[in-house]
């Protein structure tokens, strides 16, 4: 039949088919209603839309019998005629179910209109072929819609990430509205990660970030991805558990000069809770998993924030850390932006200066108990505990206790290279500020 210009059925049969299209379409819709539980939940207008598409399909079948070369155009027209509300309401799976039922009804009703056995065989073959073409047309329509939606979502996602990076105040609610349209819950806690995008060929398919999205799906988190210059910015959701903000440890005795009699060697014990996020535990395991999805090079994580409206702070810290991470060749991947405070200070990051003075130097100064003097002496004597104790005229256990107190307050350990560098820089910055101002003014508190 295909490729032959000779009509497979007689003109009389064609007229019977034309007159029967309405009844065939109605029978198809009745069968859909009887067999599909969700069909009855459609509105009257939506069910009428299904009937209209089915009637058009039946009419197109008759037209196609007259001109088989019109198959692609006619099958596509059947779906383009669907009301927009119906197209949004129906999923691809539901559409396939409708096409299957309609084809079964066509197979049952249309061949019965044949004038003889030859025409009946021709109509059976024609219905099967036309049903196949309709199924392909449905898949094409939904694929096109998915591509359009994907392109639109990508543009929307880029706008959201760009607004987060720029720190838009979202006075008109545009940021939250766009994020909600992408399925993001603006109330969940979030963290920003910055790294290099995957190299060409790392992702599967046309989307170069497909591998990143797949890693996020496997980690069970939602992500928003966007470019910032040559870097990839990821906003990652943290919607399970609580963020364990590290900070000051339990209260200690008022007399800071008294050693801990139960732990004379406490300096070498397990470190207390860190001031910065530990990227190897708890909720941050997702950050570890997603770091592998970035391209080669360092990956920097900002602090965890309460929601999307605060994500600009996390993104700003992560971007600042990524600019300075080259100064620490041995930095882990990912590395917290707070762990890069000394490098960020050297890179001219004013926010890092403020953080070191506020979170490290000031707590030590306000705690008293000669903590700052002890840190100075310990670093000056290259970490030799006994020499430090002699210079301060105290017992070595007292030095141990004071250094433990320093670690509790700041999360920095004077006995390791990173901690000693951070403490030295924080105390020096605080002294420079105090010298410049004459005092530590309330404005800086």
UniProtKB/TrEMBL annotation:
It comes from the Bacteria. Residues 243-277 are annotated as: Disordered. Residues 254-271 have a biased composition (Acidic residues). It holds the Pfam family GGDEF_2. Residues 243-253 have a biased composition (Basic and acidic residues). InterPro entries: CdaR-like_regulators (IPR051448), CdaR_GGDEF (IPR041522), PucR_C-HTH_dom (IPR025736), PucR_C-HTH_sf (IPR042070). Residues 371-428 form the PucR C-terminal helix-turn-helix domain. Residues 167-322 form the CdaR GGDEF-like domain. Belongs to the CdaR family. This is Helix-turn-helix domain-containing protein. It comes from Actinomycetospora endophytica. The lineage of its organism: Bacteria, Bacillati, Actinomycetota, Actinomycetes, Pseudonocardiales.
């Amino acid at each position: 039949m295909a490729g032959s210009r000779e009509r497979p059925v007689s003109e009389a049969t064609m007229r019977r088919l034309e007159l029967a299209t309405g009844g065939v379409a109605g029978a198809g819709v009745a069968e859909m209603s009887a067999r599909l539980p969700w069909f009855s939940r459609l509105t009257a207008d939506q069910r009428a839309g299904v009937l209209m598409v089915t009637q058009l399909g039946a009419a197109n079948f008759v037209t196609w019998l007259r001109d088989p070369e019109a198959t692609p155009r006619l099958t596509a027209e059947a779906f383009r005629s669907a009301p927009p509300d119906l197209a949004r309401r129906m999923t691809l799976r539901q559409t396939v179910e409708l096409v299957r039922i309609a084809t079964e009804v066509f197979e049952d009703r249309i061949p019965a209109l044949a004038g003889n056995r030859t025409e009946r065989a021709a109509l059976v073959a024609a219905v099967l072929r036309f049903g196949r073409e309709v199924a392909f047309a449905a898949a094409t329509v939904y694929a096109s819609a998915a591509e359009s939606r994907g392109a639109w979502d990508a543009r929307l996602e880029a706008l959201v990430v760009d607004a987060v990076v720029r720190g838009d105040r979202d006075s008109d609610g545009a940021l939250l509205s766009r994020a909600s349209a992408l399925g993001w819950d603006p109330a969940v806690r979030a963290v920003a990660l910055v790294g290099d995008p995957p190299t060409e060929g790392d992702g599967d398919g046309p989307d170069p970030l497909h591998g990143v999205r797949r890693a996020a799906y496997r980690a069970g988190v939602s992500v928003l991805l966007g470019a910032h210059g040559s870097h990839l910015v990821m906003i990652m959701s943290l919607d399970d558990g609580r963020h364990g903000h590290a900070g000051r440890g339990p209260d200690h005795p008022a007399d800071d000069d008294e050693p801990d009699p139960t732990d004379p060697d406490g300096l070498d014990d397990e470190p207390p809770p860190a001031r910065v996020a530990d990227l190897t535990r708890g909720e941050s395991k997702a950050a570890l998993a997603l770091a592998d999805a970035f391209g080669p090079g360092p990956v920097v994580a900002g602090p965890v924030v309460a929601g999307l409206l605060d994500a600009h702070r996390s993104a700003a810290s992560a971007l600042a850390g990524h600019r300075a991470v080259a100064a620490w060749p041995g930095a882990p991947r990912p590395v917290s932006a707070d762990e890069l405070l000394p490098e960020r200070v050297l890179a001219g990051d004013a926010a890092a200066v403020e953080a070191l003075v506020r979170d490290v130097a000031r707590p030590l100064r306000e705690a008293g108990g000669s903590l700052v003097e002890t840190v100075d002496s310990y670093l000056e004597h290259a970490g030799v505990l006994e020499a430090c104790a002699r210079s301060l005229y105290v017992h070595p256990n007292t030095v141990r206790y004071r250094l433990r107190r320093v670690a509790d307050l700041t999360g920095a350990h004077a006995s390791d290279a990173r901690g000693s560098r951070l403490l030295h820089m924080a105390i020096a910055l605080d002294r420079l500020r105090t010298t410049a101002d004459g005092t530590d003014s309330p404005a800086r508190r």
